[in-house]
Structures are given as C-alpha cells and as structure tokens.
Amino acid sequence: MSLLIKNGRVITATDDYIADVFVEGETVVAVGKNLAAKADREIDATGMLVMPGGVDPHVHLDMPFMGTFSSDTHETGTRAALFGGTTTVIDFVLQQQGHSLKEALNEWNGRAEGTAVGDYSFHMAVTDFNDKTRAEIKEMIEKEGITSFKTFMAYKGALMIDDRQMTALMQEVKLQGGLVTVHATNGDMIDYLVSRHRAEGKLSPLYHYLSQPEVTEAEASGRFADIADYTGCPGYIVHLTCEGALNAVRNATRRNQKIFVETCIQYLLLDASLYERDFEGAKWVMSPPLREKKDQLTLWAGINQGLVNVVATDHCPFMWKQKLMGKDDFSKIPNGHPAIEHRMELLYSEGVHKGKISLNKYVEVACTNPAKIFGMFPRKGTIAPGSDADIVIFDPQQEHTLSANTHHMNVDYSAYEGRKITGKVKTVLLRGALAIDNDKCQLEKGYGKFIRRDKVSGKI
Ligand SMILES: [Zn+2]
C-alpha cells in the first residue's frame, strides 16, 4: 500500500515548506515538490499543515492507583490519543515494593498487548531499588528496550524512594546508558502538610493545592539536579509546573548537566483558581497541582528559552464516581485528569494560534524532543525519508469546542468543557495506515505496537 499526500505545508522542528510526502508500507519514502510517484491512494492536503504524529511521553493507562484504576485502557486511551493527533505514547510500568521490575513489566504487557490501537512504549518506575533491582536495569535497557527509569520523590509509603536509592539508581542507569526521570516534589513536606490540614478539618480540594506549595517542587527539583550532576546521569523532570522549579533547573544547567524538563498542557492553560469551586475542583486534583498565572508565563517563556523541552499530559483519568471517593477528604481523591486527546490541539490553539510559540517550536516540544530524549528518533518525531509514516494532517483554521459529549476518552467529564479552540486534526496516519479520517478511527485494537527504545547515552 502506498500513499501520496499532496501540496501540504510540511512542518518539522526545523522545516516549513510546501511539498508532497510519499509513503510506502509503514515508512516515509520521499518528501519533495511535485513528486511523480504513483500511489494507491492520494490525499490532497492543500491549505493543511502536515506534521509528525505527536509523541506524549507521560500517560497512565489502566493504572492501579489509590485503590482504583485509571479509566482509560490501552485501547481507549491510545485511540483517543490518535483522534487528537498523538500517535505514540509512553506509559508507566510501576514496580511494586518487594517485587521485581520484570514482574511489573509482565503485568503491564498483559494489559497493553493486543489492545493498544496506537503505538506505545513504557517507562519503568523504580519504587524499590536494591541489589536485585540493580541487576535488572541492564536487562530492561538491552533486552526490553526500556531505557528510562521513573522515580518518585513523593507519595511517601507507596511509590517514594529516598535519596540513598536515588543516588544508587542513577549510578547504575548512567553506567547502562539510560535516563532517570522524576516526579520531583518533597514527599516529607507534603506528607506533613496533608496530615496537618486533615487534622484541622480542612478537607476540600483546595487543601490538596495548599498541601503542595511551590517550594516543595522547587526544592526537590534542585535536589534531583544535584544528585544527577554528582552521578553524571542524565535526568528528566516530569510535569514541572512552576517558576521556582524551573529556576532550579536554570541554575543547574549552568553546570552544563543534562536535565530535561517536561511540562504538561494543563499547567500552561489552567490555574489554581479552579480549586475554589468546592468539590468540582476535584476534576483538577492532580500532583503537582495547577499553579498561578505567573507560573504559566514562566513555562511559556521556558519553552522559548529551550529550558522546557517537552509538553506532555500526565493523562490519568478517573470517572466522576471515582473522584467522589474523596468527597469528604481531599487526600482520597484519585490524582489525575483526562488530557491525552486534546494536547496537540490545545497547544496549537493557545500556543501557535495566539502567537506564544512558533510552529517549529510546537512540533519540537510535542513530537520531536520526546522522541529524541527517549530514544525513538528519527523513527518517531519527524517527517523524513526512513521515518515511520506517523503523520497528522491539520486544519489550522477550523474552530471547534471541546466537550465530554464529543471526546473519545473513557471518562465522563472534560477538564476543558465548552472551551473553544482553533485548529483541528483532520487525518492521522500511523505507520502508513489510515488511523483517523472523517472523525472516525479506522484502526482495530491491537494495531498499536510496543516501541523498543535505544540507549540515550551519546545521543542527548
Ligand atoms: Zn504521571
């Protein structure tokens, strides 16, 4: 099967030109003006943007958490991602304390294999680092193609590791050519603030926000950067939300150390005033919480300064009845919200359409950088001969409104209900196959492939 996309405006992280894209099988074969190639199918992309499929490196599908499971499976989550122009996601495998990495991987493989519609990979979350875990790091990188290891400096008693384990893990990951990623907030401070608020009877969602002040994130981000610098291990801070934390990174990178920063679309667009809406604020209970307007400005600037490398989602949806588990106590509200479907369109509308970032920067932070940092480039994250034909054809003018009534995520509310945006995904290809067309998903479950990733040492 071959396919020719004619006359689109091809955008990569560095290019912007009108051209045809010729796809054969799963791969882009040629990009150029007036290609003479004969194809089985032609798509006229006049007036459209032709961009690489989005890569969302931070999603939680079918994840056991706080006594329940996130409500999107690998099937519904990756399908919703495709509707929004994201063709590859990286999900998190969570090691259980006292158990091996391999056991956890088997469990996640069991849920994802044969069900994912879009392509996916895994980060391995290390929650218990000991001599046995150490021996598994090399195997994960070389045998399984899992090259990034997630750590939590928070969620004390469940997922958190201490600095001793962090140092030891970083030494091993550095040795084996991988990358350590982190949820960087001070778990002890947060643990104390949560218990103090509960003891004082302050139980509404607002106190979720007030239990995780900016300093908890700034402190941990700086500490993580310091340990990474000492060990020489490349580091990646997930869902960075605020000025204090970004300044810690700004300072750390003066040492020329490899610290990459991800923010998420919600931290660019939404703010903490939503927590003043009584229990409705539970829709946006996530960790870290939404911040202030001044932090949004810092994050947009950070993208343009090259300090914020990636815009992801931390997609972790829960049905409203699951959120109600915390009706009388904010600390029991499952943390997370739905976003996987809307990242690309929201970032376009708010970022490019409103003039905050360029089109090239848009592709860089939503597609190219996540593919590069996590060892999938140039297979994913760009449009070039030899790359996977993961392509989004995007109408930059079309206006539409986001709503739970029309979204494809398996969750009964929208974090952006009624929001009007400009720019819409029209057609999506995944490895050369028509994935989204005419607002319909054309792929069956099980089409999505696990993407093995390369070592990152020497490449980032
Ligand atoms: Zn997360």
Q: Helices and strands: which structural class?
A: alpha/beta
Residues in helix, %: 25-40%
Mean pLDDT: 97
Task: Outline the biggest β-sheet.
Answer: 9 strands, mixed
- Structural Rg: 21 Å
Uncertain parts: none
Overall shape: globular
Overall strand count: 19
Percentage of residues in DSSP E strands: 15-25%
Distance between the termini: 35 Å
Bound molecules: zinc ion
Number of helices: 13
Supply database-style keywords.
8-stranded parallel beta sheet, 460 residues, single chain, alpha/beta, 9-stranded mixed beta sheet, 13 helices, binds zinc ion
List the helices and strands and how they pair.
Elements: E1 2-11, E2 16-24, E3 27-32, E4 41-44, E5 49-52, E6 54-59, E7 64-65, E8 68-69, H1 74-83, E9 86-94, H2 101-112, E10 119-125, H3 131-144, E11 148-152, H4 163-176, E12 179-183, H5 187-199, H6 206-210, H7 214-231, E13 235-237, H8 243-252, E14 259-264, H9 265-269, H10 293-305, E15 310-312, H11 320-323, H12 343-353, H13 359-373, E16 391-401, E17 420-430, E18 433-437, E19 440-441
Parallel strand pairs: 1-4, 1-5, 6-9, 9-10, 10-11, 11-12, 12-13, 13-14, 14-15
Antiparallel strand pairs: 1-2, 2-3, 5-16, 7-8, 16-17, 17-18, 18-19
Bound molecules: zinc ion.
